[in-house]
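Notebook entry, structure prediction.
Reason for the run: the old model in the group folder had no record of what sequence produced it. Starting over properly, with the input documented here first.
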Amino acid sequence: MRLKIIQKSAASTRGLNQIMWECHAQIKNVADLISALVHREIDRFESDGKAELTAHSQADIDAMLKVGKVSFGFRYREDTGSIDRKHAIDVAKLAYKDQLFSLFINNEELHSLEQAITLHQDDEITLIRLVMLAGRYY
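New structure, fully documented this time:
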């Protein structure tokens, strides 16, 4: 099924990053959704390969500026074969439990890893990375 992933950092002034995702995994709860998203990101990272540097057109640069980052294809990590998927999933689940990011499906917040969910074609999954502020209680 096709899903739309919307990413946003709470501290960022940049716009929303929207990605279409063709999901083939069986997702029954929030933990399954997080696992599928981690697998997707690892697959995407590993498939980038060692791309040759290319010259960007002004239109490409303008599109990247709207997102807030102009990149030129550099990869600083070469040992992609050493990514431990199980560990990455565990870290992502722990981050969710620790409320370092929030998940929403069609503007409804998800509250626990065990919460049952049903996804439909063209549902919107929103991830918001939360930022802890330093300070004191008075």
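Summary: The longest helix spans residues 30-47.
The old model has been moved to the deprecated folder.
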